[in-house]
Structure formats: C-alpha cells, structure tokens
Amino acid sequence: MSKIKEECGVFGIIDDKPINAVGHTVNALLALQHRGQESAGIVTFFGDNVFTKKDLGMVNDVFDQKYIDSFPNSYVTVGHVRYSTNGTRDIESAQPITVTHKEASFALAHNGALTNAEELRKRITMDGGIFYTTTDSEVINDLIIKQMRQTKDFEQAVFNCMDILEGAYSIVIATGNHLYALRDKNGFRPLCMGKLGTATVFASESCAFDAIGAEFIRDIKPGELVKVDQKGNVTVRQKDVSDRKRGLCVFEFVYFARPDSVIEGISVHEARMKMGEYLYQQQPIEADMVCGVPDSGISAAYGYAKASGIPYGSAFIKNRYVGRSFILPTQIKREKAVSVKLNPLRSAVKGKRIILIDDSIVRGTTSAKIIRSLREAGAKEIHFCISSPPFKFPCYFGTDVDSRENLIANKMDIEGIRKTIGADSLVFLSYENVMKIKFGQDVSFCGGCFDGNYPIDITEPK
Fold first, then answer.
1. Which of 8, 192, 385, 446 is catalytic?
2. Fewer CB near the last or first residue (10 Å), C or N of the chain?
3. Domain count of the fold of the chain
C-alpha cells in the first residue's frame, strides 16, 4: 500500500417525471471517481422493473456514451463507485447490490465499513442466510430483509437496522418509488442532499452536485434517515445520538475528498490551505520554492507558500492518463507507476532548496521514490512536510489503514523516517493543528488512525 486507499462514492436521484437519470448519475459518479476506481454501477427502477449495469473499471469504461444515449428516461436511480476496503475485488462485489425478494425489491449503495459485520454475518448464517460476497453491504441488505419480515414496512425496517449496525455507513437506497439516505450515528463518512430542478439528489460529496448543476441543500445528519418519494415529499427520522461521539473522518479533508467539495460547512480546499499554514507555523524553513505532490498536496502547498512568502512552484508534471498506483498488485509495479505518473521538472528544481508538501506517509516507499527523483533532477535540498500527523493505528471505518506493521510511523520515530525516505528534514502536522480545521463548525473529527482513540469501542482482531 503506497497510498491510503479510499472508500467508495454513492449517488442517488429521484423525480416525479421521467428524466435522464442515468446520464446525471454517470456525470455524478465521474465527479466521485476519486473515491473508488475498481468498479462502477448504476441501478435504475421503472416501477417494478429493475435494470442493473455494473462492472470492474472506471466510470467511463463501464458506461460509454452509446449506453447513456440509448437508455430511456427514468424516475429513480442509484449509483456507486467502489474501492474494496472490505470484501474482494470482483464483479459480484460491485455495487449497488440489488435485492429482489417477496418482502422488498431495492438497490443499495454503501460507503464505509461496519465494525460488527462479522458478528452479524455469523448470526444471519446461523438463521439460514446465504452470502454471495464478502462485503458489508450484503450484510446490510440481509438485515433489512430480516427486519421487513417483522415490520412489513420498508422505512421502519431500514430505521430499525440503524440500531443494529455499528461502524461507518453512509447509504443510499432506491426502490421503485422512493429514495432513502441514511448515515451512521457517529457520522464517520460524508453524505449530502441537493436539488436538481424538481428532482432530489444524494451524494457522498457536494462536487457531484456541481457536476450535474444541482443545488446543495444540506448534509445528512449523523443518525438520520431521509426518505423522498417521487413527488418530492421528504420524511425525516432521527435516531437519538446524544450518547454518541461525533466522528467525521478527518482524512476526508487531508486526502479523500475533492478540494472543490464542502463537507459539514467546511471547504476542503480552505482546510488544506490552513494545514499548510499550520505546517509553516510549526517549523519555518528557509527555501527557494514550495511544491505540492499532485494532487492532494497542492492546496496545502499553496497555504504554506502564502504563510511563508516563499514562491509556489511546480516540481512535477503529472500524467493524468495513469490510474492510481495503489490499485496495482505488487509494490514493484506501484513504484514503477509512480515514475510514469510523476516526472520531475528538471529546469524548475535544479539547484533549488525545495519544501515539498504531501498529505501522508504510509509505508514510506512512495515518498522515498519521489524524493529520490527530485535529487536526480538536481534539487539541492528537499524538506518534506506532511499535512497530517503520523499514521500509527489502523482504521476500522472504511479507510484501508489495515495493520500497524504496514505503517512506517508505527516502527520508526520521525528521524528514522526522515533517514529512510532521504529527506533533509521532515515535519508532520501536529494532531492539535489538524483538529483546528473545522473553522468553528459544529463538528468533531475521528483521528483514531493518529492517536488510537476512536469514537466507538473497538476490539482489535487477534
């Protein structure tokens, strides 16, 4: 793992008249592509008829223009882009997952990871349930069906499940005439609501609304279930979260989210700019140029340059036709992909003292490769500044920080990491400073991957 892996992106749309729902969903998923690049899927409802298309690959690979143009207008659609933080990488695990059952027919798209998935899976299996994938999402589907047998009411069944599920889930569910959005009681993963004309839309990030010309309305609250019918009528139900710690993943702002998104009232770009300013305040460095590692280090680099007065410049040219290197199966292939994807600008870096900003260090192999490439291009000094604290602990909520032994900061102190990656100096953003980026908003962050303190009790697997 050369970079932290993202989770997934979800989207849903419903209207009272047939619209180009598939086209809107494709464009929204393209805007959310950074959240998952293994598979893409869309499920569309025409009354009782359900149409599903999903496959491994990027959105444009799965949905070409011919398919979009040929698909008739529809009322309700849900879409998903996936990265497999849980489950296997195969077409069966691609989402949305569709259920056609005598109790209910629906399609579910999930972002996050359940902390009690194994316990629920065992319980459902003992009751005769059969699983076809290893995903948490199938556990949620089976749980909804089980609740439907008791309540005979789909909304109530979903609402009941929110008391049973533990961990992170931001979910959009489509039925023949309703769209549901729900978020776990701690609010680990983002989910927001918008309007596109008379249509209601839900998405993991607000940038999806910008892509289709929709208006952002609000974030879904932790513990909230929102139901929308075809006429646009909205029903809101709220779980009691008074005993829950808020826990929005701070790494949404460090790395995951697109810089043009706004989450819980916080601009991702402005948060990253502030991280760069804090880095300068922590440890001012004399240098000739401030550079960001594309793409998630760029906003923080702007912030550092602004605070320090040191000119911002580009140190790399990024090949945007190369996919994310972390999806490649071996470390050797990942390192080769870094060389193809990021090429130093020799004329810009030769003889310069460079402050290089990146979002994180995981294993350290990619950081070492980047620094080595700058040295070979003639950089005089390389001061590496990281816009997050050191990763020392696993994440259990949909981010693939999966084991302590894979984390370089769990094995070495900062000086040891500096020597390993070959930087002249190394600065991590402090925990206190990364927690300041909420700009007065009523939100608390989960930083368990930094300090081991999680918003909910965690039993680590043995």
1. 8
2. C
3. 2
